[in-house]
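We were asked to recover a plausible sequence for a given structure. The inputs and outputs are reproduced exactly as logged, with field labels preserved.

PROBLEM: sequence recovery
POSITIONS: 177
GIVEN STRUCTURE:
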């Protein structure tokens, strides 16, 4: 099974999926959208919220996208295009698809990772979706409890923010902010 990427109007991902599910008829395909749970600060208050990991992008599992299938997707409201390009629709490279599936194994809503800080004040992921991605973390925002992780779609860099929860702070990292 291959993994394809569909670009839709940002903010209409859920609506597109519902429209597709009503129309899909005989197509034995699976489409999904990845969201993340983050701590969001607004007006001095912090609460948990959901945001799209890849705004405007949906993932489709299929063996192949033939012209008829393409037309069915294209005629649903909010459709923009298939990535890499409409004329030559290509599945995600295997290594990138594997990383998407690694995120998806935590569900369609990605929760927060559990982290600690070591003696060198570096983030160490104990559990959650960032586990194994420590080498891809490019920025950590302690105040917002988010880490920017380097991903790619079709070999183009795509940094994403993932939330984390600090389990404990080691000595020496307590007063760093």
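RECOVERED SEQUENCE:
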């Amino acid at each position: 099974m291959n993994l394809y990427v569909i670009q839709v109007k940002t903010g209409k991902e859920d609506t597109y999926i519902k429209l597709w599910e009503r129309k899909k008829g005989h197509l034995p395909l699976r489409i999904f959208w990845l969201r993340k749970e983050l701590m969001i600060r607004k007006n001095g208050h912090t609460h948990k919220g959901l945001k799209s990991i890849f705004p405007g992008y949906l993932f489709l599992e299929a063996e192949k996208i033939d012209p008829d299938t393409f037309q069915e997707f294209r005629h649903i409201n909010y459709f923009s295009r298939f990535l890499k390009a409409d004329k030559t629709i290509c599945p995600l490279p295997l290594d990138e698809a594997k990383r998407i599936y690694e995120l998806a194994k935590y569900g369609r809503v990605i929760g927060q990772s559990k982290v600690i800080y070591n003696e060198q004040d570096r983030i160490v992921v104990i559990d959650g979706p960032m586990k194994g991605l420590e080498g891809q973390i490019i920025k950590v925002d302690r105040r917002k409890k988010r880490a920017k992780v380097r991903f790619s779609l079709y070999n183009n860099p795509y940094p994403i923010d993932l939330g984390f929860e600090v389990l404990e702070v080691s000595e020496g990292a307590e007063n760093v902010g």
